[in-house]
């Protein structure tokens, strides 16, 4: 580059190892869903591998940053990379929301005899379209006994996650103004709120299986419920781990008022997860 230089990171093994660990975890997850607990060791090994790769990859990036190797060009690269990553996540969730809307708006009415493809009603002539679908058209599939009230645990989790975006914003503003104590305390509160969200969703999942009959086998409602909330929950877990790493760095005195993109990128991701949850609360729980 004319008039200067820029840092080119060394080749990294972490993307390949991370993909391998993720693949192992997904194979294990599939084994658990199909064969039960016999696939649990494979899933756990994959999960441990993912956590190890995250920790070691974070370590390398932090060391490079602390050595002053990153310049304005690298900062732009990080920002563009994070922006495109979040865009890919938007498309990821858009596909699942699209599947939910397609089922509710087109597939179920067709099975009830409505629309241009209403001939599908010949498959199950006694089926009546409704959502949430408690009685699947195929009598061999047992639907859920009941659905969650959105105004109990889901509302609590909504308030927690929205509140965590507020506390994270306060922490970010504190860091930009040089008030590190404010940044530390409010970021700590954000992490605690994230952990509370995860714990409450775990309680909700237990209630879904034990008391409500909402399982992956409970027809299309159970499948879409766990697909959407499960992937979101996984993103919350990853986001919380990232925030914990950022919190440790803040407590160690890393970042400055003008140089803290690691913090900023984590905030972008967390706010995205918050927006997705609002969509889930609206279209999975309320309507």
From TrEMBL:
It is an enzyme of class 7 (translocase). It is a multi-pass membrane protein. This is cytochrome-c oxidase. GO terms for biological process: aerobic electron transport chain. InterPro entries: Cyt_c/ubiquinol_Oxase_su3 (IPR024791), Cyt_c_oxase_su3_dom (IPR033945), Cyt_c_oxidase-like_su3 (IPR000298), Cyt_c_oxidase_su3-like_sf (IPR035973), Cyt_c_oxidase_su3_a-hlx (IPR013833). Belongs to the cytochrome c oxidase subunit 3 family. It comes from the Bacteria. It is found in: Cell membrane; Membrane. GO terms for molecular function: cytochrome-c oxidase activity. Keywords: Membrane, Translocase, Transmembrane, Transmembrane helix. Residues 2-287 form the Heme-copper oxidase subunit III family profile domain. The chain crosses the membrane at residues 14-34, 40-59, 80-103, 151-171, 183-203, 236-255, 267-286. The keyword RNA-binding does not apply. It holds the Pfam family COX3. It comes from Halomonas eurihalina. PANTHER family: CYTOCHROME C OXIDASE SUBUNIT 3, CYTOCHROME C OXIDASE SUBUNIT III.
């Amino acid at each position: 580059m004319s008039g200067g230089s820029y840092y080119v990171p060394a080749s990294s093994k972490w993307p390949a190892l991370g993909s391998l660990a993720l693949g192992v975890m997904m194979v294990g997850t599939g084994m658990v869903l199909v064969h039960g607990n016999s696939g649990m060791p494979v899933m756990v090994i994959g999960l441990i591998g993912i956590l190890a790769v995250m920790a070691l990859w974070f370590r390398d990036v932090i060391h490079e940053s602390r050595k002053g190797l990153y310049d304005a060009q690298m900062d732009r690269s990080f920002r563009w990379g994070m922006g495109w990553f979040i865009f890919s996540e938007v498309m990821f969730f858009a596909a699942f929301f699209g599947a939910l809307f397609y089922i509710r708006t087109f597939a179920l009415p067709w099975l009830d005899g409505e629309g241009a493809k209403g001939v599908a009603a010949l498959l199950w002539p006694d089926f009546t379209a409704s959502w949430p679908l408690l009685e699947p058209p195929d009598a061999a599939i047992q639907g859920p006994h009941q659905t969650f009230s959105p105004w109990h645990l889901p509302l609590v989790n909504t308030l927690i996650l929205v509140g965590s975006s507020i506390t994270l914003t306060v922490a970010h503003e504190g860091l930009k103004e040089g008030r590190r104590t404010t940044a530390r305390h409010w970021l700590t509160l954000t992490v605690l709120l994230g952990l509370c969200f995860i714990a409450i969703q775990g309680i909700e999942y237990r209630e879904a299986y034990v008391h409500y009959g909402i399982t992956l086998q409970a027809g299309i409602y159970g499948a879409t419920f766990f697909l959407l909330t499960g992937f979101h929950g996984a993103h919350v877990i990853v986001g919380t781990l990232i925030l914990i790493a950022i919190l440790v760095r803040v407590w160690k005195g890393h970042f400055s008022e003008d140089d803290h993109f690691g913090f900023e990128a984590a905030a972008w991701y967390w706010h995205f997860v918050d927006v997705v949850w609002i969509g889930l609360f609206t279209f999975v729980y309320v309507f």
